[in-house]
Every structure is written in C-alpha cells, then in structure tokens.
Amino acid sequence: MFTGIIEKTGRIQKVLRKPAGSEIVVEVRENWDDLKIGESIAVNGVCLTLTQFKEEELKFDVSPETLRRSTLGSIKPGECVNLERALRLGDRLGGHIVLGHVDGIGTVKQIKKTGDFYLFSIEIPSQLSKYTAEKGSIAVDGISLTVAAKKGNVLEIAVIPHSYTHTNLKEKGVGDKVNIEVDVIARYIESLINPTGSQISLDFLKRHGFA
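The structure assignment produced for this chain is given below.
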C-alpha cells in the first residue's frame, strides 16, 4: 500500500521487451540506503517488485497485464517517473490510500498556470467517472491529488508548486497519458450497494443519495 506522496523521481534508462512482459531499468540520482530485493515500489503509480538494484539503478519486471492497463506499456527511455516505496506500519498517511493498481489511462487535455499554481484538466475513461467526486481523492501517475471540479469524465485538478516541481508533472504536456487510480473506498461502496455487479440506474443512485 502507498500514500501517493512521491519520494523521488527517476528516469527510464532501458526498456527490455520479453516474450511475455518486459523489464524496465530506472535511473535515480541517489538511491535509498536500505533497499531489499522483492520489496514493492510504485513507479508512476504502478506497484512493481524490485528485482535488482545497484547504485543509482533499479530494475523491475512488468507483467503483460500491467503493460496493457498502464502507461508502462508505451514508456520510453528518458521519461521521468514518480517513485514511492510501500507504506510502513506506523508511517503517517500523508495522502490517501493508494494500492498501486492502475484502473485506467487518462489524457491531459489542458494545463493552466495561475501564479505558481497549475490547473490540470485530465480526461479519464468514462467507466471510471462514477468513482470520482469533487473534493475527492485520485492518484495521477501515483500522486495523491484532489479533484477540484468535475465535468463529465474530465477532471480539473489543482496542483501546488511543490507537487509540480517534485514530480513528473513538470514534464507533462497536453495530450500526454497518465495512470489513473480511483479512490478504493468508492469501489468498496459500490460493492456494498451492488454486490451482484449489475448495472445501477441513475434513478437508483439518486434515491440513495449517491447522485
């Protein structure tokens, strides 16, 4: 489990395609001093297992399913990635509960700068829209962010200067793809009110105060 508070960024050094899946090598300026093989690290919000490491270099295997569901399927050498180690028991939960299980890929539609702040408009897959809400939490490339406004399946997300300069957001442009993980609490609520997984009507949601 993660919190969406990015600890550092790295750059993709190599992408090694395999018959099934791939291996990615991430270059970091300064490595952590207590890494262990087999631990979980979120790379752009995707929970991956550390397979090898040495000074300023991390290696991960990426499964075919992860390649299909996330931007790691199209990532290229030189791209900046967000990195966060798994939450330790007793750590502060500074962001929100992030599992590292990407729900879909979003597209940056617009970036507006106001002073030192930025407003990102991100279009998410329509099937994920129901799991988002104004002032709710969402993970974008693993960053815990707050939805400032919602217009259909386009989310407006206000980004403070620190989040912008200390993550890969500073290198994003219109048309770029980002990993999206919705708040897991919304998924559990849906499972409780709709255990069969059948289609829920808008009328049902309105009657129960969810729309």
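Interim note for the steering committee: The first helix runs from residue 64 to 69. The helical segments are 64-69, 161-165, 184-193, 202-207.
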